Task: inverse folding
């Protein structure tokens, strides 16, 4: 385990709760980071509230039958169980399940414990069992699809807080995750504050544009604002709305 | 761009709004067209109303990094933006995204503009960003799955109104699209009127059959109606219901 | 067709209606059966009620065009139609569609007939057409995704009640299927009674654990119950709740 | 097991040995059969000689662990072993392995036995183990890729001589298989004689065309021969070559 | 059709014949172009000689049955035939087959014609029929896998010399293709001269490194040459070898 | 890095050089290990000699662009370079490339260095660049397919000698790898000696069987040897051949 140097501030967390994964994707794209969207995952049951938190990681490798009988769960050091008890409140447990959803990455009891401990969410590029129970929790959860078989069938929990792959994206412990209805973006820790600030402005502008479009405006010249008129309108809108 | 010769009549549009993609698939199958169902797409948020309209097409190719910086959107001729402003009211914008949903084909602002312009719908074999916003619109939208990254990441908008592939189906500008809860059928323009007429009759018969089945009838002999009794019952039902 | 020797008792059925696919998966895993979860299917429209029933099977092979014109449905012996009329009440029709959802495995009229006949459910590793109509029925249905094209496009119905593959799982006629929100487990007939009994106990224990976790308990030592305290607490809970 | 009515004549066999899978594919396409090429298989080690023979089929379903211990091979009735001993000389053993090559469909000892018995070839849409040994035999073999694990790992041999799927193609017992460097075509038994005759002519014409092209001719007007000159040249070539 | 502005010089062609796709990939990577390797294609029969030439493109879309009977080949304007007769000598015919190798992109007669016309090669992200015949030609050919069915089964030839996708890479008419045993790189026309020059130097250095490694040198410090000794050795080697 | 406790003896190495991956797969299957065959890899250029050695592992995660410029190779601690210089002679370098062959796992210079250092082989579930050069080496190499792009495009080298996934198989440092024409088996270190011994006997028996089959024997009763005659014949053969 390494100790991530970055700590998400309350201000950046609040800002990120107000921005979309689409805006973050664009802001990272502008910086040359084109591959930070976790591919192939969706919310278990989206409730219209964003997930924001730093990544606490769990790495699975394929399960070898002799090392993964049902009795391994009796071991107090089993990494999956330890992960659930040590992921810090406000953080997100991110699992590298090698995109294999043929067996579960976790089930509702463990995810409930994570929620009760105040964690911010859970993400796997595999699947959850008892997904209905997980979807009923208040804490956001993202996966590929439901999967009833126990994780021991295909996944051996191995490492905590090492860099992992999740849905083809590198996730370093301490990176900041943002989840909404589209899915989950991974923001490198060192960029989180500036991305949060920049995207807050982007959201303001997009709200203005959407208002204009709903009022009948064309997008060319407005989005992006290449005309003087569009820029003036936006300035006026900002004055008027205080954003 | 080519100018499609066929124009969807109000009568055919109305008929198609009353038939299912399943009926259209069967009617096309009878004519030897076995591959007109766009594979792998589903409604962003189905509202129980069918999508009907002619195809206005947009072709993407894979994005080359040097040709697709964020600044291309400042170009008033960017094909994606032009598509959104020129797809005719009542038509459907259909995008060839090469079945690649790792980046978005479009986002909620552009799709909102399309809806405000009176277009009939939008279809991509890729994904939409801010899918929640798109799902909240009244206009039908079909895609593979949500995807936050900007289209510039993987897609370069190239052509308008050329024949394209969408979900393994050929789509010619002016073809008629029908979408429902199952997905989207592509009806060759030259067949749209006769398919609409034939399917209207099929729907009438299927409503009769469903009524019979709900009343306890067996399907053999009834669906299709191979017995004299079944044919007589249907004739009587048509008299009674005026269909 | 073979006649399965096992008949699901009312007691076992009732027990299975109270257990999750996750519990069954674990119980089968303990017996060395690691591959009984039908991969890649989900409920058409889940209503919070489990599907329980023995398997009546239908095998499709790829359709050869000359053998599968639309007129084959006029044949009173067409295996798909016969399946719908002969699957026993309380049983589940399970279809081997070779995981190919590019054409439908069945549509709403046939599935409605199956429901009216008192069958317990329908499962395909392909797709259904008019999935909306099927989702509106009270009978559970599981598939990969909606698919409008008629089954004749890609599937020839061939055999009834032979062992099949469904979603990479072997299904023998008479096996017991359990479906919930996660998907469908296949329980070998010979194990159904003991699995049902064992899982009933597992569910009781998991309800206890969930209650503890919701009250703030940690999972290590409790799940599984490796401490004397956890075992005593569970014994007391069982006394108190009568479970 | 059913008894196929058709028997491949020596004349048709000889003709098919002289035609390519490409020609057969085109001849079947002209008759509306578009899906007779076994997808995803290639020769284990191609030796420039075509495989021709009728199909003797073996169906695998996914292996359930308790039914497939290593001891099942002691059973004299094990269908895989029986297949190897009963596939008629001159026929081809075709296996439905559900396109799953993660475990073997057969190994070199069984395939050697098949070769020694005078069979014409073996095809699986899975993989062979000890593929090197199989490639060293004189008898043609087609598979997806080599695979070391025993078939018991994933495949239970179930049925002999029932219609099957192989590489997304329906194969009926008695159908005629033609294999060359491109792969394997399945010719419905009832069409074998006429396809063989027609393709013999096509090969003659293609040899003529290739000679012309190698001599510098353009393909337009020649292939197909739409000009009078091309037709006259071909007639002259046939006279000259006696084909 | 557009007319590409760039013409490959004899010097750049000669240089590219001496460099590997790996070197070109690295040189493009340094310029921010990370996606120029055509994915999923390999030489039909590699002969140790590189393919170099500018791209002449052919776009296929999925075939609609009524538009693609066998008789379309009688049409002197059929784009596939026209492509074969108009691709300039020294150029490479590149086909967008949407990565679908279930039917052929072309066969040996057309490819022979292309070779006789002095073209530099042919590439498809689909498959070739009569791949053995194509492999026997002197002209390089790259595809996914052999495929016997006629292109009409799944591909309608539509456009010549428009930008296309091939193996997930954008290919613009006039781009320079380099093929070797690894596969095919697409070099944007505007970069071809500088890439050829830079890679010539890279190859020289790699030959030096390989000589050193074969003589027992470690790679760290040498590859890349971060030590003064390594740089001096390379300078001496260049003096000695005249490269 | 952990230090594996097991060291492969010369005797076990010699035995394994005489057995096939198929035999090892069966021996592991008998012990309940069903998933030890690395899926999807093949020899770069098979030379009829087996690869045997213990696993030295390298783990890649997806590359983040800002962390993986070309200059990282100047770093003397870059894990890929360190792996090549520290993998012990007689061992096999095994790379977890997450089954992603869109960019290379390594190229010919590094693999040549590995060969010169006396390593026993290299395995990746991705691809190699300059595969032709690697295939020309005497040291065995296994991959998915050739891939020209530098590993920096998609892979960041992260860890040495941690447990990894390779082709869906868990590989622990020190496990014993056996490669032949079929592919690569992973033998858990603790089982290597007994598996080598058992398989040596299996190979002896299979050689006997193959001799019998080539002489015209049927497989039933012989393979496995369920008859007294078969067992007596084998005993006699062992006496005669000294095996």
Result:
């Amino acid at each position: 385990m390494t100790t991530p140097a970055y700590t998400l501030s309350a201000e950046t967390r609040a800002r990120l709760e107000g921005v979309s994964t689409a805006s973050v994707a664009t802001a990272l794209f502008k910086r040359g980071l084109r591959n930070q969207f976790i591919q192939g995952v969706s919310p278990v049951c989206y409730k219209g509230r964003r997930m924001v938190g730093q990544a606490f990681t769990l790495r699975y490798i394929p399960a070898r039958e002799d090392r993964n009988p049902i009795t391994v769960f009796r071991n107090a050091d089993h990494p999956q169980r330890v992960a659930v008890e040590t992921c810090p409140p406000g953080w997100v447990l991110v699992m590298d399940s090698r995109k294999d959803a043929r067996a579960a990455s976790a089930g509702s009891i463990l995810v409930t414990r994570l929620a009760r401990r105040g964690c911010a969410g859970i993400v796997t590029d595999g699947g959850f069992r008892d997904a209905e129970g997980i979807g009923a929790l208040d804490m956001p959860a993202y996966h590929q699809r439901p999967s009833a078989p126990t994780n021991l069938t295909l996944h051996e929990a191995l490492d905590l807080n090492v860099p992992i792959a999740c849905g083809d994206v590198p996730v370093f412990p301490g990176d900041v995750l943002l989840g909404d209805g589209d899915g989950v973006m991974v923001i490198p820790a060192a960029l989180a504050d500036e991305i949060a600030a920049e995207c807050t402005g982007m959201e303001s502008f997009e709200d203005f544009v959407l208002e204009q479009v709903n009022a009948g405006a064309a997008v060319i010249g407005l989005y992006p604002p290449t005309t003087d008129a569009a820029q003036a309108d936006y300035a006026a809108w900002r004055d008027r709305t205080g954003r």
In short: The longest strand of chain E covers residues 51-62.
